[in-house]
Amino acid sequence: MEEGTGLIPWKDILRGSMVVSFFCLSPGTIPILGSVIGIFTLIPILFYLVKLGWGYGLAVLGIALIFSIFLWPLFGSGSEYFLVEMFILGPVLFSFLKRGFSITKTVGYATGLLILLLSAYLILWGIKTGHNPYQAVVSEINQSMESSLRFYEQVNLPETTVGAMRDALQDIRILVARFWPGFAAASLLVLVWMNVWIGNRILERYGSVNFQFGDLSRWSLPEIIVWLVILGAGLALLPYPGLQTAGINILIFFALAYFFQGLAIVSFYLKKYRFSRFKRILLYSLIWIQTYMIIIVALAGLFDIWADFRRLKKAAD
pLDDT at residue 28 above 80? Predict the structure, then answer.
């Protein structure tokens, strides 16, 4: 850490401010790839907080925030919610790391915080505009899908293909109207998990031993979480549309959580049998591309509670 040395690390502060600002503004400045870069804004925020400590790390965030606020309208970088969530979540995650939270608590609490921030943002927006925020999100998603359909119509795809896409779009609209909260919460979980996982690898590489989660291939969710899955399944089976919708949204979120546990199981055996890097990349690519592979991995994560595929409980005993 740089704090306590008596010297102000101006170079690191300025460099960090520029890097964080670049990540924040990338969605509006870089076509296509900018949105992908913006997703990982938490990584440089965490890196400089860990490297410089609270005092100088917050100085980096303060300068980057001022810089981003002035340039945000010029580039039309998107919703202010994104900027707010990054600058709130970064210090929160750092405080979790300093307290030695496990990766389960770190990701769980951070995801919960983002869900609360999103809910508050939608409620305040609804109060300000007088519109129903739930329906507004549905309308925004429908407009995005319509724009995508128009794009495919302009690239001269066969009429049969465009017609099939248009028919599928009608079914997707019905699903989105009911289940977007579950998909939104799952997306926030992915955002936090990817940033924490990659950030952990970077900190490990730079020797920050006090901010590491250990071997994540041995990670698993607390067993009590399975009762939430059972609750969601029970609600989904009830003959009441509102309860069914709530149950399926719960299942969507925790299906993703157990998918991550399934990936930990896959990683465990890839390490155990010493698969080459090429084979690992190939297998992970197949998992992400093939829908049935995603389902199998998620089910493996869920049934690991009883099957104990990695024999972790036996080793603990």
Answer: no
Q: How far apart are CA 280 and CA 284, in angstroms?
A: 6
Which pair of structure tokens corresponds to residue 91?
């210090």
Which letter, b or e, does each residue of 81-114 get, where b requires 16 or more Cβ atoms within 10 Å of its Cβ?
ebbebbbebbbebbebbeeebebeebbbebbebb
Q: To 5 degrees, how large is the angle CA 53–CA 102–CA 272?
A: 115
Please tell me the distance from the alpha carbon of residue 14 to that of residue 64, in angstroms, as a whole number: 9
Question: What average pLDDT does the structure give for the chain?
Answer: 85
- Determine the residue type at 280: R
Q: How far apart are CA 22 and CA 215, in angstroms?
A: 31
Q: Bigger pLDDT: 103 or 209?
A: 103
Do 245 and 223 contact (CB within 8 A), yes or no?
no
pLDDT tens digit string along 260-317? 999 999 999 999 898 888 999 999 998 988 888 999 999 999 999 898 899 887 655 5
pLDDT per residue over 75-92, tens digit each? 655 567 777 888 899 999
Helices (H), the chain: 10-29, 33-39, 42-75, 80-98, 103-129, 133-154, 159-205, 226-237, 241-272, 277-289, 291-307, 312-316
Q: Do the Cβ atoms of 15 and 58 come closer than 8 Å? A: no
Assigned token pair, 178: 């009911």
DSSP labels for 55-79? Answer: HHHHHHHHHHHHHHHHHHHHHT---
